Structures are given as structure tokens and as C-alpha cells.
Write a sequence for this structure.
């Protein structure tokens, strides 16, 4: 069998190591996973209750249009139902955008260290990825504008950026959007939107009316704690949503995901509490990194990227042996690890393990 030539050498996405795998490999009983930016406090109790109640209906297909959830989300965001599309995580929306709009030879612009799914989906469709270097871990919007050509189809902005955690302020984003040609789509990935407390940060939804070429992505996987159910969404003009819908599979979100997301959306008090706890966790970790004389990027999501001053893979392995899973292997930041902000207890355990790992690697702390 002959596959598409452009996919033969594609790397396979590597998620954070599963807890069960680490326990089995290393013979550990207690493992803390701080690798995939999951909510350490889980989902809202009301979401769990709704999911349990829905178990009696597993024999039924889901509503392919997610009508009830769409209506509730539209009301929450202040948009119309035809501005919204749901997917199996926001990852699927990225794939659907690529499927709907890229032709072989189209160009797409993104940062050189950002969410890898943008590039992989462009590669699958035969588009050419133009990767623009970050500056101090942040999108260089002027340099991205300079790379626009007549072949540019889509620009991707991850805000906060994954993995660095930095943000593009609203003023800079608006200036950028004003300069992008109307025929070029800008996808603003706000997967960590609900965690951000910085007042300079933008709300992409409020920009949609002024920029019909803008698409905003968000998810229920992060602060809402529904990562296992895989449900995210895109918000854009009805024209764009209609085109993406043409390439969407008919039942791409499950009944459990829809009812869980609906209940989670209604419990904004839980969201606010998770944001408060996350902000406290950032303060806790940053204080410890300063004590250990470790540089880090400003954190605006629920993760921090920190320089461990030695090859990150060695520190990763040393942490793993102590039952702490983080992320390493950032191609342009070989001495950095990315750690999810956990509970206060998890953060404390991580710092204790990190100190030992650094000493094992010969880092003076």
C-alpha cells in the first residue's frame, strides 16, 4: 500500500506518559502526573453527576448538532448558535480547519515552538508550514506579518502559548489583526483562556465581530476538567463554521461529553475556584524556582516552563524515577521542562523531587 508521500516522515504525537505505565515500568505505587496540563481538582461535581445520569443512555447516538450544549454555550459567550462548532477536543477543530481549507502548496504561519498539532495537520494536507521564531518565548507578530505571501492561507496564534505559557496582549493582537489581509484566516487558540488573570490579555470572542477572518478555539479539557471526554469548540463567523461543518463527522462528540460540558459550563463558581487555586499554585512554584535560581517563562495558563540548566531529558528521567511525570523534549529549549501546576501538595512533592533530580544531574541549588 502506498500512503500519501507527505505523511511518511511525520512524527507521531507523544502525549505525557500515562500514570499506569510509569507505575508498571518503575514499580511505583504513587505517581503524580504534571505533564499534560490537566486540572488537578477534576471536574465540577455537577458535571460528574450529569455524566453518571447519562450512563443509562449509552445505547443511543448523541445529538450530532449538540443543539442543547450549543445553545447554552452561545448564551454564555454572547454569540449565536451558528457561530459555534464542537469537536473531539479542540484538536479535532484544528484538523477540520486544515481539511476544509488547505490545498497542497498553501502556506501557513505559526511560531517555531508552539502546539505541534498545527503543523502536523498542515503537513497531512500538503500545506507548507512557515515557522517564525519566538522572541523571549512569545509570538513575534511583526515577523509573522512579514512572512505573509499570496499563498498564505492560515496563521495560528496560541494564546497563552503552549509550551512557553506566554501571552500576546490585546493591544498587540488587535494591531496584528488589523494588518492581516482579509483573505487570510487567523486561528486564535485560547485553550487556557479561563486561567488567565493578566488584564492585558484579550478575549478573542469579543474580536470576532470586527474580524470575520478570525476563528477562536477553546476547550472543556483544561479548567473544566473533562479531558477524558474530549470535547472542545471553535467560534467564528457563520460562513466559516458552515464550511468546517461540511467536513465534520456526524457524531464527533459523545452523549457523555455533551451532558458533562453542559453541566460544567453552568458551574462557573467551580471555574472561578480552579482559577484561584491555579494562580496560587503559580505563585508557589515561581517562588521555589527563584529560590533554586532557575529561570522560567511568565506563566499565564496552568503550566510553567522552567530552565533546569542541564539537558532536560536527564532531569525528566530523574523525576520519573521518583514518581513525578513532567514534559521535556522541547526542540528549541533543550534545558527546559514544562510542568503542570498541581495542587499545593503536588507542587510541594514536585519541588522536593526536582531538588534531588538537579543534584543528581550536577546542578548547584
Amino acid at each position: 500500500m502506498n500512503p500519501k508521500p507527505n505523511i511518511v516522515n511525520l512524527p507521531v504525537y507523544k502525549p505525557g506518559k500515562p500514570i499506569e505505565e510509569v507505575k508498571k515500568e518503575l514499580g511505583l505505587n504513587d505517581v503524580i502526573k504534571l505533564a499534560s496540563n490537566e486540572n488537578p481538582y477534576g471536574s465540577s461535581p455537577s458535571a460528574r453527576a450529569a455524566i453518571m445520569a447519562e450512563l443509562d443512555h449509552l445505547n443511543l447516538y448523541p445529538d450530532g448538532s449538540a443543539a442543547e450544549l450549543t445553545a447554552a454555550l452561545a448564551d454564555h459567550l454572547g454569540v449565536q448558535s451558528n457561530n459555534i462548532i464542537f469537536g473531539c477536543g479542540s484538536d479535532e477543530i484544528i484538523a477540520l480547519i486544515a481539511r476544509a481549507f488547505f490545498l497542497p502548496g498553501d502556506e501557513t504561519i505559526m511560531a517555531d515552538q508552539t502546539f505541534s498539532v498545527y503543523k502536523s495537520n498542515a503537513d497531512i494536507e500538503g500545506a507548507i508550514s512557515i515557522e517564525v521564531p519566538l522572541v523571549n518565548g512569545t509570538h513575534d507578530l511583526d515577523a509573522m506579518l512579514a512572512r505573509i505571501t499570496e499563498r498564505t492561507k492560515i496563521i495560528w496564534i496560541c494564546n497563552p502559548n503552549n509550551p512557553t505559557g506566554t501571552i500576546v496582549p490585546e493591544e498587540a493582537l488587535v494591531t496584528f489583526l488589523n494588518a492581516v489581509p482579509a483573505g487570510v484566516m487567523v486561528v486564535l487558540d485560547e485553550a487556557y483562556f479561563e486561567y488567565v488573570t493578566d488584564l492585558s490579555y484579550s478575549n478573542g470572542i469579543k474580536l470576532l465581530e470586527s474580524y470575520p477572518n478570525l476563528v477562536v478555539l477553546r476547550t472543556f479539557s483544561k479548567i473544566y476538567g473533562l479531558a477524558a471526554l474530549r470535547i472542545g469548540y471553535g467560534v467564528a463567523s457563520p460562513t466559516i463554521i458552515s464550511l468546517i461543518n461540511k467536513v465534520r463527522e456526524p457524531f464527533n462528540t459523545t452523549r457523555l461529553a455533551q451532558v458533562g460540558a453542559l453541566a460544567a459550563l453552568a458551574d462557573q463558581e467551580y471555574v472561578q475556584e480552579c482559577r484561584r487555586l491555579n494562580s496560587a499554585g503559580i505563585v508557589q512554584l515561581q517562588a521555589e524556582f527563584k529560590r533554586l535560581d532557575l529561570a522560567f517563562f511568565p506563566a499565564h495558563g496552568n503550566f510553567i516552563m522552567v530552565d533546569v540548566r542541564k539537558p532536560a531529558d536527564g532531569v525528566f528521567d530523574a523525576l520519573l524515577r521518583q514518581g513525578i511525570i513532567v514534559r521535556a523534549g522541547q526542540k528549541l529549549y533543550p534545558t527546559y521542562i514544562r510542568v503542570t501546576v498541581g495542587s499545593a501538595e503536588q507542587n510541594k512533592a514536585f519541588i522536593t523531587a526536582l531538588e534531588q533530580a538537579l543534584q543528581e544531574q550536577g546542578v548547584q541549588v
User: Anything to note?
Assistant: Residues 45-266 form a domain with the Aspartate Aminotransferase; domain 2 fold (CATH 3.40.640.10).
